Amino acid sequence: MAGSKYAYVRNFELPDPLLPGTFMVFRLDGHSFHRFSDEHGFTKPNDVRALELMDHAAKDLMEQHPDIVLAFGESDEFSFLLRKSATLYNRRQAKIISTLTSLFTSSYVFHWSSYFPDCPLKYPPSFDGRLVLYPSEREIRDYFAWRQTDTHINNLYNTTFWALVQQGGQSTTEAHATLKGTFAKDKNEILFSRFKMNYNTLDARFRKGSTLVREEIPEPPLPADEEIPTSVREEIPEPPPPADEEIPTSVREEIPEPPPPADEKIPTSVREEIPEPSLPADEEIQTSETPSEPAAHPARKRKKTKPRIRIVVLHCDIIKNDFWDTRPEILSG
Ligand SMILES: Nc1nc2c(ncn2[C@@H]2O[C@H](COP(=O)(O)OP(=O)(O)OP(=O)(O)O)[C@@H](O)[C@H]2O)c(=O)[nH]1
Ligand SMILES: [Mg+2]
């Protein structure tokens, strides 16, 4: 069908494909969150509700987009790594940036009242988004090291600054002056000698930021009285997931975390496990649903299924090799 005489204007829309076979890093950042956090009474220097809400919005992005293999967030920003082979929206730059930014923003607003039940939104928050291509694993490792180093620098500064103000009675101008020209060891010393605070025992969420990865859900063991030969066992339908996998995120995330250990190894307590819901039919399927019918007989056949995947939130070191060595799939392409 012929277009109208106006349709030629479409020719001014230029294609904006992203180079194939390169890592994409998408980062978004809260617009004027200095003001937004003030207007909504965020706790200083860190507001756990606000950080958990950011994590939730990031998880929503990962659930909708299997090409995202890693996310890292702190303060009002989140970075997402899309694998090299990602074909999302035919790698059209504007489409990817605008859709991901808008989904994150709407998720942030959608879940706001779960995290701030007593504080209605005073105005709509917004986020900016950008996308950068990187050619190799080295830049990706350095990119995430850069963001986590920033987390550390900002958090140490903010923690010391607000300790001087809130506990030390200094004005904000005085606190700025006190910290001018100081190094990390000086700030640690101020925290320890004046406020008896050991920075390394602060919540790992604040010191390390939030890292979201996909993990396989281990199969629950079969009850002892249903012991059967391995060859048969592989074909038995899976039992329903254990009760603790059915706790809604909002409840699970309200469980207070115990303080992290000093050695910064990732204990279970700094790992929030979020079962991944089923994906839309047109998305690549990463999870296999648990069959709803229980086994009528232990020897009944179980389909061989892909491992079930969940998204977990970690507060761990992502600069050293350990994180990457134990998760080779993140950079595998
Ligand atoms: N009190 C408090 N403020 C926070 C928290 N997280 C983020 N913020 C605020 O958000 C700001 C984020 O920094 P920026 O992104 O550099 O500042 P911005 O005001 O968002 O400016 P643009 O990003 O350039 O629009 C911080 O400076 C804080 O003022 C929090 O947990 N508690
Ligand atoms: Mg910002």
From TrEMBL:
Keyword Aminoacyl-tRNA synthetase in annotation: no
UniProt keywords, alphabetically: GTP-binding, Magnesium, Metal-binding, Nucleotide-binding, Nucleotidyltransferase, Transferase, tRNA processing
Cofactor note as given: Binds 2 magnesium ions per subunit.
Biological processes annotated in GO: tRNA modification
Enzyme class: transferase
Basic and acidic residues composition-biased segments: 262-274
Cofactor: Mg(2+)
Region (Disordered): 215-306
Entry binding sites for GTP: 29-34, 75-76
Residue ranges occupied by any tRNAHis guanylyltransferase catalytic domain in the UniProt entry: 6-135
Domain Thg1 C-terminal: 139-320
This enzyme's EC code(s): 2.7.7.79
Keyword GTP-binding among UniProt keywords: yes
Reaction(s) catalysed (UniProt annotation): a 5'-end ribonucleotide-tRNA(His) + GTP + ATP + H2O = a 5'-end phospho-guanosine-ribonucleotide-tRNA(His) + AMP + 2 diphosphate + H(+)
Domain of life: Eukaryota
PANTHER family hit by this protein: TRNA(HIS) GUANYLYLTRANSFERASE-RELATED
Functional summary from the UniProt entry: Adds a GMP to the 5'-end of tRNA(His) after transcription and RNase P cleavage.
The name this protein goes by in its record: tRNA(His) guanylyltransferase
Organism: Mycena sanguinolenta
Organismal lineage: Eukaryota, Fungi, Dikarya, Basidiomycota, Agaricomycotina
